[in-house]
Design brief:
The structure holds two protein chains of two kinds. Chain A is an alpha+beta fold. Chain A is built from two helices and eight strands. Chain A has one domain: Sortase (Sortase, Chain: A). Chain B is mainly α. Helices cover 64% and strands 0% of the residues of chain B. The longest helix of chain B is centred in the middle third of the chain and has 27 residues. The chains are: A alpha+beta, B mainly alpha. Chains A and B meet through helix 1 and strand 7 of A and helix 2 of B.
């Protein structure tokens, strides 16, 4: 085979590999976000639709069962991350679930209940929900609704940097949070550094107030 | 490689160009729809929890 053919084929293969890499970067940085924004909006629409149906016909007595895995059950608002920042919260933290929204750790407390309501979210890719996580400060409101009530949590500590194996940060009384007694806490986790996976960033807070949805939005969301 | 493909496409130059474009688009579609979604979780951006690993 002449040298010319070998060199040409190698060049073409290199060129092709380069184009595929550029396409892959485009996919990770841009396309996952486009897809995730659409999927998250769909999740929120589905939730609102579901809640509208529920309020039309009186819901059966609230039963403290686990949330169905992979299904959205709440919407989270964090005014610090932007007045339009709202994300669906789904049950479970596996890869497929986190592509559609924030993920509630199975086995941690239900919304508003005693224990530690713990949620994980992407820092980067898939809509970058927790891109501005380091801007969270103690005193910031984290508001959630499950269609029946508003839950206003207040951040008490963080962002706190830890290692991925530090599962005690989502304990009912989280380690290193400063809490000493059982209470109604919440934990948010994401990755750190922004594009890496060597560490995790964590914030903790407590339940500040709850109110029925028909009495209007909580103060933290009014502007 | 590309020369070989070009020679094996049927029709005149215009048809060949159109077919090349369609092939390229099909390739991009397969990459975005199947290959990249498979490859992306192998990168570290998905590790946002404090459990399984």
């Amino acid at each position: 085979m002449p040298v010319r053919v070998i060199v040409r084929t190698l060049s073409e293969l290199s060129l092709t590999a380069g184009i595929v890499m550029v396409l892959f970067v485009t996919y990770v940085l841009f396309w996952t976000g486009v897809r995730a924004d659409g999927v998250m909006d769909d999740q929120i629409d589905a939730l609102r639709h579901h809640w509208a149906l529920q309020s039309a016909q009186p819901a059966p007595s609230p039963r403290p069962t686990a949330y169905p895995a992979g299904e959205p059950f709440a919407i989270m608002y964090i005014p610090r991350l932007g007045s339009t920042w709202n994300k669906p919260v789904l049950q479970g933290t596996d890869t497929g679930t986190l592509k559609k929204g924030l993920g509630h750790y199975p086995g941690t407390a239900r919304l508003g209940q005693p224990g530690n309501f713990s949620v994980a979210g992407h820092r980067r890719t898939y809509g970058d929900p927790f891109k501005d996580f380091p801007r969270l400060r103690p005193g910031d409101a984290v508001v959630l609704t499950d269609g029946a009530r508003w839950y206003t949590y207040r951040i008490d500590k963080g962002p706190y940097k830890t290692v991925p194996t530090d599962v005690a940060v989502i304990d009912p009384v989280p380690r290193a949070s400063g809490y000493t007694r059982p209470g109604r806490y919440f934990t948010l986790t994401t990755c750190d550094p922004e594009w890496g996976h060597s560490h995790r960033l964590v914030v903790w807070g407590h339940l500040d107030s709850t109110r029925p949805v028909d009495t209007g939005q909580p103060e933290a969301l009014r502007r | 490689m590309y020369g070989w493909i070009w020679r094996h496409l049927p029709g005149n130059a215009w048809v060949k160009a159109l077919l090349s474009l369609l092939l390229a688009l099909a390739l991009v579609y397969v990459l975005f729809q199947y290959v990249f979604p498979w490859a992306e979780p192998l990168l570290p951006f998905n590790d946002v929890t404090v459990d399984n690993q």
